[in-house]
Amino acid sequence: MKIEPVEKHEVAESARPVYEKLEQKTGRVINFFKMMAHKPDVLAPFLEFYSQVWAPGALSPKIKELAYLKTSLMNGCEY
Asked: Does the predicted model carry a pTM greater than 0.90?
């Protein structure tokens, strides 16, 4: 079974403001967040967590991206 990303016209009402905020900030909603929208009650809290992870801090964005990619590879993620 293949799970498809949740498009804006299909998203739960509780997740609609998240989509609108992402569209205002970046011009679009990436598939990563469209997949998270299958659990609309998790999407907004996860987005806050995700924002904090990518905020300036002790690690450079390059190291954060490397950790992100390595973890994905170790878990067999294709996306």
From this structure: no
pLDDT exceeds 60 at position 79: no
Does the pLDDT value for residue 78 go beyond 80?
Answer: no
- Nearest Cα neighbor of 34 from 53, 13, 14, 15 is 15
Report the candidate in 49, 5, 11, 52 with the shortest Cα–Cα distance to residue 30. 5
Contact 9, 20 (CB under 8 A): no
Instruction: Report yes or no: 5 and 34 within 8 Å, Cβ to Cβ.
Output: yes
Which residues are CB-neighbours of 29 under 8 A, at least 6 positions away?
8, 19, 22, 23
CA of residue 23 relative to chain centroid, distance: 13
2 Cβ neighbours under 8 A, 6+ residues apart: none
26/21 Cα distance (integer angstroms): 9
